[in-house]
């Protein structure tokens, strides 16, 4: 097998890797991409972001059909619906197949050469790949490490048998009667909520004093209330100790040790960067804890070796990886650029959804500046009322002296679609007056952003 020589080698075909490869090839860079999996898209597309949102949608549709979604106040009645989880998963897999096929087509159209198999560094410029037909050696002037992350395990609850990861939960073909979710972060709550709506009895076990501890209590309050409405039991200040016989999970909480029924135990305590399979020890890379340390150009401690996405640390978000991939491609192509994003939106697809962009209230106060805050409740938004989505609010934080927006947060059904507007406002360094003066379509949820800016200016109209 002949050696391959290229200007750019990308290791990992997830969101960051495939975007980097496509953009580089579009800019005339001779590019090769390597991934151990035969399908492009990485964990996000194959076993994460996309399949989880498909399951959430199916669960919402099922809950609506049963009349449980909003208490059946609309006067709609129907026969008792049934869920065929295997068929649901087949539909979900069809979406993944369509999207991964699209990425493969885009890579081919851009002229990117693909090599399938696990990659391992021989040195800083040479990588070997174990393909189905033998070892392929690739020599590259520049290398991008985009190996992503994997679900983190608990020592007391290693994956296997009844203990499953988020990836395995998204491949279930039978609904567990009882499900224990270990970890009250966004992954655990998104999946736990979906399975509860499908009919499973769900218990969330969270070691922290409250769920979603990375968000402030005002944002998480509506989520907690909704969990109770759909029958999810939440145990905070509680740790999972291990499995016992007869489908029980041993836990230790404020009231001491106890056991809960759990046909499946879904462990969602975070994700770990994948740094142990590609010859990390052959390179003189600097680490930032478990992550690869990078500079403002996404370059590691070794010249010509870049790293992007989850392997470089928080926030572990697909859109951050994509932006970093685009940046590195342009740098390799000769453009002078550096990471200067003002903000990266974060979305939690719970029920209701949470969006945060920029500084939180505590972070804004920590700047030492006087802060203006505007809050608009969705209960006063006409579109939210017609969607039976009155729980939640939009909140805008800005400097008091010049009214430059520092942060925007929202909680409510459908607010994930406002994240682009929130991000644009901060990226363009908008002032409260800019948002307030922008004509927002009526009736839409977006009006809540305008109203929140008006409220911060002391000019609220509808609240």
Could you please describe the fold and organization of this structure?
The protein has 463 residues and is α/β, with parallel strands linked by helices. It has helices at residues 15-26, 42-47, 49-66, 85-110, 166-169, 186-198, 217-229, 318-332, 361-366, 382-386, 419-427, 432-437, 447-456; strands at 4-11, 31-35, 113-116, 119-123, 126-131, 134-145, 149-151, 163-164, 178-182, 201-205, 233-235, 239-244, 248-253, 256-261, 264-267, 271-273, 287-288, 291-292, 305-307, 346-348, 353-358, 371-377, 393-399, 405-412. The longest helix is centred in the first third of the chain and has 26 residues, at 85-110. The mean pLDDT is 95.
Please give the structural blueprint:
Elements: E1 4-11, H1 15-26, E2 31-35, H2 42-47, H3 49-66, H4 85-110, E3 113-116, E4 119-123, E5 126-131, E6 134-145, E7 149-151, E8 163-164, H5 166-169, E9 178-182, H6 186-198, E10 201-205, H7 217-229, E11 233-235, E12 239-244, E13 248-253, E14 256-261, E15 264-267, E16 271-273, E17 287-288, E18 291-292, E19 305-307, H8 318-332, E20 346-348, E21 353-358, H9 361-366, E22 371-377, H10 382-386, E23 393-399, E24 405-412, H11 419-427, H12 432-437, H13 447-456
Parallel strand pairs: 1-2, 1-6, 2-3, 6-19, 8-15, 9-10, 9-15, 10-11
Antiparallel strand pairs: 4-5, 5-6, 7-16, 12-13, 13-14, 17-18, 20-21, 21-24, 22-23, 23-24
The helix content is 25-40%
Give a quick account of the main beta sheet: strands, pairing sense, barrel closure.
7 strands, mixed
Outline type: globular
Low-confidence stretches: none
CA(first)-CA(last) distance: 70 Å
Question: Number of DSSP strands?
Answer: 24
Structural class: alpha/beta
Strand-residue proportion: 25-35%
Gyration radius (Cα, Å) is 24 Å
Mean pLDDT: 95
Helical stretch tally: 13
């Amino acid at each position: 097998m002949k050696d391959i020589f290229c200007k750019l080698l990308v290791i990992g075909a997830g969101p960051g890797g495939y975007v980097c490869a496509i953009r580089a090839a579009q800019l005339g860079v001779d590019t090769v991409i390597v991934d151990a999996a035969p399908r492009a898209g990485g964990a996000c597309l194959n076993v994460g972001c996309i399949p989880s949102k498909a399951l959430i949608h199916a669960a919402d549709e099922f809950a609506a059909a049963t009349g449980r979604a909003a208490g059946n106040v609309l006067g709609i009645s129907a026969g008792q619906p049934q869920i065929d989880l295997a068929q649901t998963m087949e539909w979900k897999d069809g979406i993944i197949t369509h999207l991964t096929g699209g990425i493969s087509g885009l890579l081919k159209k851009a002229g990117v050469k693909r090599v399938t198999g696990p990659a391992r560094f021989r040195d800083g410029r040479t990588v070997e790949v174990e393909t189905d037909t033998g070892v392929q050696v690739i020599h590259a002037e520049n290398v991008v490490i985009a190996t992503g992350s994997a679900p983190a395990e608990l020592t007391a609850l290693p994956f296997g048998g009844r203990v499953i990861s988020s990836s395995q939960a998204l491949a279930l073909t039978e609904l567990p009667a009882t499900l224990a979710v270990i970890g009250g972060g966004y992954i655990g709550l998104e999946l736990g909520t979906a399975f509860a709506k499908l009919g499973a009895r769900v218990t969330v076990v969270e070691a922290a004093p409250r769920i979603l501890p990375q968000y402030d209590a005002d944002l998480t309050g509506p989520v907690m209330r909704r969990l109770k409405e759909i029958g999810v039991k939440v145990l905070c200040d509680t740790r999972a100790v291990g499995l016992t016989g007869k489908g029980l999970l041993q836990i230790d909480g404020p009231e001491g040790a106890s056991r809960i029924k759990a046909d499946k135990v879904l462990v969602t305590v975070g994700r770990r960067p994948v740094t142990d399979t590609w010859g990390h020890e052959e390179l003189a890379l600097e680490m930032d804890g478990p992550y690869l340390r990078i500079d403002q150009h996404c370059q590691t401690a070794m010249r010509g070796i870049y790293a992007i996405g989850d392997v470089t640390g928080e926030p572990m978000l697909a859109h951050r990886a994509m932006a970093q991939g685009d940046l590195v491609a342009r740098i390799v192509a000769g453009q002078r650029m550096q990471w200067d994003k003002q903000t990266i939106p974060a979305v939690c697809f719970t029920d209701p959804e949470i969006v945060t962009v920029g500084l939180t209230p505590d972070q804004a106060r920590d700047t030492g500046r006087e802060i203006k805050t505007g809050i608009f409740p969705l209960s006063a938004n006409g579109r939210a009322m017609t969607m039976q989505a009155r729980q939640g609010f939009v909140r805008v934080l800005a400097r008091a002296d010049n009214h430059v927006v520092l942060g925007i947060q929202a909680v409510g059904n459908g607010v994930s679609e406002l994240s682009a507007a929130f991000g644009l406002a901060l990226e363009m360094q908008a002032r409260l007056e800019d948002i307030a003066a922008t004509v927002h379509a009526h009736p839409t949820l977006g009006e809540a952003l305008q109203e929140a800016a008006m409220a911060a200016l002391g000019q609220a109209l509808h609240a």
